[in-house]
Amino acid sequence: MPVSVRLDKETEELLDKAAKIISMSKSRLMKNSIREYCSRIISQKKLTPYELSKDLIGKEGSGRKDLSTRGEEILRELFRKKKNDRN
Hints:
Helices cover 67% and strands 0% of the residues. It has four helices and no strands. The longest helix is centred in the middle third of the chain and has 20 residues. The protein is mainly alpha-helical. The model has no long low-confidence stretch (mean pLDDT 84). The radius of gyration is 21 Å and the shape is elongated.
């Protein structure tokens, strides 16, 4: 199915350079990139909330006396830090 995409100059230059480096057509590179990106999004969507946050759970040991009153705030800070680490 034909799809038309308009790219800004910077993105088009990146696509040209990458395609030349790996000796692949721009069309094939775009298809592969879109497939990989969309597959990653779909696989992450299938994860349960626990699976998405299991690396954060258990990081705060029992030494903190404010977990019962600040638990939500602490968890939000951990999520924010995790998101920033990915970017």
